[in-house]
């Protein structure tokens, strides 16, 4: 089973662990002696912690080794990792870990042999091996650290843009009968016979001009109406879109888990953070 460095498996692992970084922790024995620091962690394809990569220092040899996660106790309150029974002799016997190497079954077996109880007489096979066979080395949650996660529901509001309608603005033609008045003039001839002022006066032969035929020509005119149509801009219609804002409030019933602690007898219980 391949193992991955923590950041290779989850580049955002700090966010996954609420800002905690296991690679920033120092390594101490249960007696309070600093024996190194955490350089990295190795996880399996399912994301389960299998080893802490320890930079051993101090009285131990100065080298990197693998430490099974089940033998450790991580305390983020003091930024420390406490280990059970890691001795200088064990560090000396452990194979050195290098960042460039690939951890395979054979290398893990060299590591496990150092941590397994000397009384163990279990036969291990590379084809059938699984980490449950060394549950004391890997099952951190089943040993000294039990994690109980409390969950709560939250309302998450999102918005979707949906089409609720459509407005079409166009134009059509309506017809009506219009009337217009135009004054026009028409000429006509009025012929009147009137009595001369000096009627009965004798005129000379030269004044009297007797002729036959046309005596006077008068041209008669009249106006005729000319009706045409012209187009004018009557009005303008502007079509725009405005956004009205309003707040939509929703109400739902959400659930939240609370911790119940029940003890029997006079037991000291540290309720830090409760």
From TrEMBL:
Residues annotated as domain DUF2382: 148-261
Matching PANTHER family: STRESS RESPONSE PROTEIN YSNF
Gene Ontology terms: biological process: photosynthesis, light reaction
SUPFAM superfamilies: PRC-barrel domain
Gene3D superfamilies on file: Photosynthetic Reaction Center, subunit H, domain 2 (3.90.50.10)
NCBIfam families, alphabetized: YsnF/AvaK domain
Superkingdom per UniProt: Bacteria
InterPro entries: Bac_photo_RC_H_C, DUF2382, PRC-brl_dom, PRC_barrel-like_sf, Stress_Response_Assoc
Domain PRC-barrel: 15-89
Protein name (database record): DUF2382 domain-containing protein
Gene Ontology CC: plasma membrane light-harvesting complex
Pfam family, one: DUF2382
